[in-house]
Known about the structure:
Layout: H1 3-54, H2 60-89, H3 96-101, E1 105-107, E2 114-116
Antiparallel strand pairs: 1-2
Amino acid sequence: xxxxxKMREGVDVAKWKADQLIRIQKVQGEIGELRNKISVIHSQIxxxxxxxxxxxxxxxxxxxxxxxxxxxxxxxxxxKEAKLEGIKREEPPMMASxxxxxxxxxxxxxxxxxxxxxxxxxxxxGAAIFKxxxx
Length: 135
């Protein structure tokens, strides 16, 4: 593998990781926004409760509605956190096209598959590849 091929592969992986980081930051931002919504609703709960209490008309339904909204947001946060973990577990894809386009190939004498020239066994059928010794 040439140094230019290794450099290209390194650049491809670095670009992939940069994209992964951007996606992580985006989801983290969305989670932060949802948590802020919960804080706003917490404030609404306190304000609503005090207002209804002062007017002596406090019932459960007003509070239950706000709590259901919080539950829905918490479910959305859990979904985004799962998405975030999935992104963090991703591995860079194998740069198969870059691995094969600059690599010399030979043909397996047993199954005629195209294999890397430096292979000692066929990657398709497992046949041993005998190479003449160089003088």
